[in-house]
Amino acid sequence: MSKMKKPSLLRLIIALSLPCISVNAQTKRPESERTLAHDIYKQFVEIQSGFTTGATTPVAEAAAARLRAAGFSESDIFLGGANPKKGNLVVRYHGTGKLKPILLLAHIDVVEAKREDWSMDPFQLIERDGFFYGRGTGDDKAQAAIWIANLIQYKKEGFKPDRDIIVALTADEEGGGPYNGVVWLLKNHRELIESEFALNEGGWGEESKGKRISNDLQVSEKYVVNFRLEVRNKGGHSSMPVADNAIYRLAAALQRLSNFGFPLKTNEVTAAYFQEMAKIETGTVKEDLAKASKGSQEAMQRLAAASPAWNATLRTTCVATLLEGGHAMNALPQLAAATVNCRVLPEDSVDYVQSTLQRVVSDDQVSVKILGEPAPGLASALRPDVLAAVGHVTEALWPGVPVVPIMVMGATDGKALRIAGIPTYGIQGIFFDRDDIRFHGRDERVGVQSFYEGHAFLYELVKALSETAPVTHSGGL
Ligand SMILES: [Zn+2]
């Protein structure tokens, strides 16, 4: 199947699938359920679980206590982690076993927040002017609280899904490192989270001037590779310069790099993204977005020139970020080096990027070495069942708001799961003003209405995905 036809087939599948899933969606759950979601949210936000100073264990334990009180048996609740402070929670809600489990993931660590940097206490959930304020309100404790609240509700209702529903609340997503909960679980207790696919953070609803623009579904991530470009020569006294100078050689190599751009292209996810964006944007860019989704190089060039974000979506990028060289004011440099930071499309290999850099540098005295051990990313397939369910629940809650598949430039825990063979989709249904995203920043917040709508959206979405047999398809999208 040609790349160009994929997005239209995608829409066809969504359209055909609509009547198959019965969703009786409301934009808000009943008050008693909202109160429970709010109370869990408040409890999670008010436990300090900063990446460096805090602990996730008390959050995991608070969730476990809620689950026990709701009647979950001890054997279905797991608490553990790479270190006593870095606890994770995994809970299983049993289905009929007809389908493989679904994993619902959220991280419970947060980026640090200092009281003096905020206009209020970052570790209190404060409701003000239609927003919930507090560190982690958006990233990622809303989703964590919603997963737990909804699981408790499913149990209350006696809901019998066709697959087990597993919720994992995990440590140390922010910055990763040796205590990362997902990596630790994959290594030590993979059976607990073994699943057909996972839902996670990474995709949210975009709002602009109070209007909902799109409900984003994150399907893939770029990955990072750092290179060191290095020139060494014998040096000497600066009073007798010679033509072969390490700094000049490196500078010339970097100049060639600055004039170079990796090929512009789309993949399954970004073609679908541009196609959806073409419906949202207006003016001349609208046409370029549509053309880019069908592979037009000219349109891609114009988009890349118009926006750094679109440029980064359309190609692998490499940019010099650090520089060092020389050892004395009056000596010819023996060393000149630069760090080049590359953000690589999932379909481009590390070898390809390295050999391309070598070719662009085109000087065999400039070595191009990989720093660290890069872990290439993977895209999750655009699963028709996930797309259909997300599309349908979105349409039921917010008629006319499109679902836009996205590839993001940053990384989430979804990467580790995708590499481990568990396709992962970033989806929240919580809307944020795209010009005022405060994750990791000061006065982080979530709209009160957005929180409760996300609560209702995820309630319906998980039900739709665990109740209905997947849309059958041949050939794959
Ligand atoms: Zn996060």
Description:
The N and C termini lie close together (about 10 Å). The longest helix is centred in the C-terminal third of the chain and has 20 residues, at about 450-465. The chain has helices at about 5-15, 30-45, 55-70, 140-155, 180-190, 190-195, 245-260, 270-280, 285-295, 295-305, 310-315, 350-360, 385-395, 415-420, 450-465, and strands at about 75-80, 85-95, 100-105, 125-130, 130-135, 165-170, 195-200, 205-210, 210-220, 225-230, 235, 315-325, 330, 335-345, 365-370, 405-410, 425, 430-435, 445. The relative contact order is 0.19. The model is unreliable at about 1-20 and about 470-475 (pLDDT under 50). The strands form 5 sheets. It has a 6-stranded mixed sheet, sandwiched between helices. The protein has a 4-stranded mixed sheet with strand order 16-9-8-18. A 4-stranded antiparallel sheet has the order 12-14-10-15, with helices on one face. With about 475 residues, it is α/β, with parallel strands linked by helices. About 35% of the residues lie in helices and about 20% in strands. The protein contains 15 helices and 19 strands. Zinc ion binds near residues 139, 140, 173 and 201.
How are the SSEs placed, and which strands pair?
Layout: H1 6-17, H2 31-45, H3 57-69, E1 77-81, E2 87-93, E3 102-107, E4 126-128, E5 131-133, H4 141-157, E6 165-170, H5 181-188, H6 190-193, E7 197-200, E8 205-208, E9 211-221, E10 223-232, E11 236-237, H7 246-258, H8 268-280, H9 284-293, H10 297-306, H11 308-314, E12 317-325, E13 331-332, E14 335-344, H12 350-361, E15 367-371, H13 384-397, E16 403-408, H14 414-419, E17 424-426, E18 431-433, E19 445-447, H15 448-467
Parallel strand pairs: 3-6, 3-7, 7-17, 8-18, 9-16
Antiparallel strand pairs: 1-2, 2-6, 4-5, 5-19, 8-9, 10-14, 10-15, 11-13, 12-14
Bound molecules: zinc ion.
